[in-house]
């Protein structure tokens, strides 16, 4: 009871921590039952961290209901909008995410995972305020860039944070929650953006980074980071908070395992260390997965989603079609999260790539028939809609969330900041290029050519996942790193 009172009163040295005295060793039941540590604190900390990912989803989804209004009206707060400005407004968020990858990768090793997320919260709020009250196009673009810069940092830190605070048995579930949070944020903005003006929706979105900051202040730093900086006592306190004070013996064993895998890595890895298979192999796998994720055509498909609904003869309102897509996205990220510890990461990626390849091939075929033989396309309205739904569920089942999960799991502790930084920047850099220049791609390759190209990329991704991507389900960090040393 005293321990509970200590936790609630905040008398411990960090918010929410219980200070373990040197002579305390909580006894465990001797019934012979296998104990599992308390999971609620792990879920709570991951949930709070993912409020930041939800806020990024707001930034990514904001353009869908807002840009059509901007382009049609041609003015807002005395801003003059045109199609080129609209593409820049849409692409500035991925561009901000690209640059944040380098900065966040540096910060996670210098100030920790927790504080890296916390320092992004206030400027994130500022970015939304700039967007809402922007007096010129330059200010609008600056606000979009700032929300992308701050939000992009969460795509690096949240998977790392979740993987480092969780037990092996639920690590995949907790790491996969970021995909659910981002898609939930996108869906939320679709709904709100269809109900209120874009200036109001921007102000509403500003609340979420602020809510995150309040909640994250009371969450612990990861025991892996603390151990890497030689702060073993603090790491023990963090583990006690996350696992529960009644599991002292297990926590001590887990801490020893962390110390064995991490050691003191306060210094940056040398070039020789970076070229070791234990670093190079997981780094290449993370980069390749992000390549296949971006060239899975997610931006291309969502770009034409409204036209696809119209071709199907549904006469659905543009905002409603976006909301329907949002529901499908959220639903299948939930499914992915529920089965990731049963099926494993690798099988989710393989099934996802199969579905993406087939659906994009079908979608490209429809646009080919529509452009080359329009009279024969009149009875095929069902094909693009079916292909779109199959694509969205396939992407969000595996290729959307799982690469971020694996980024947090595969990266060795002493190079996690560098690998996560490069992976995040690479992903968002490709996202910016595709978002900004997709219209030019359709001119050069035709619409159906673009979809066939992305289908071919997804098939290549399928082959890559089968051959090179390892399974991490149920494995500890030590086991994962040892597997790269053996092969």
Task: Please name the CATH topology.
Answer: Growth Hormone, Chain: A
Helical proportion? over 70%
Q: Which outline best applies?
A: globular
By DSSP (H or I, 4+ residues per run), the number of helices equals 23
The structure class reads mainly alpha
Whole-angstrom Rg: 23 Å
Protein name: Major facilitator superfamily (MFS) profile domain-containing protein
Transmembrane segments: 43-65, 85-108, 115-135, 141-161, 173-192, 198-219, 279-300, 320-340, 347-369, 381-406, 418-438, 450-469
Membrane topology: Multi-pass membrane protein
Keywords: Cell membrane, Glycoprotein, Membrane, Transmembrane, Transmembrane helix, Transport
Task: Describe it.
- The protein has 487 residues and is an all-alpha fold.
- The protein has one domain (40-486): MFS general substrate transporter like domains (Growth Hormone, Chain: A), CATH 1.20.1250.
- It has helices spanning 2-9, 40-61, 63-73, 83-110, 113-133, 137-165, 171-195, 198-205, 207-217, 223-228, 232-243, 248-262, 271-274, 277-294, 298-303, 305-311, 318-343, 345-372, 382-399, 402-410, 416-445, 447-468, 477-486, and strands spanning 75-76, 79-80.
- Strands 1-2 form a two-stranded antiparallel ribbon.
- Strand 1 and strand 2 (79-80) form a beta hairpin.
- The longest helix has 30 residues, at 416-445.
- It is globular and about 70 Å long.
- The relative contact order is 0.14.
- It is found in: Cell membrane.
- Keywords: Cell membrane, Glycoprotein, Membrane, Transmembrane, Transmembrane helix, Transport.
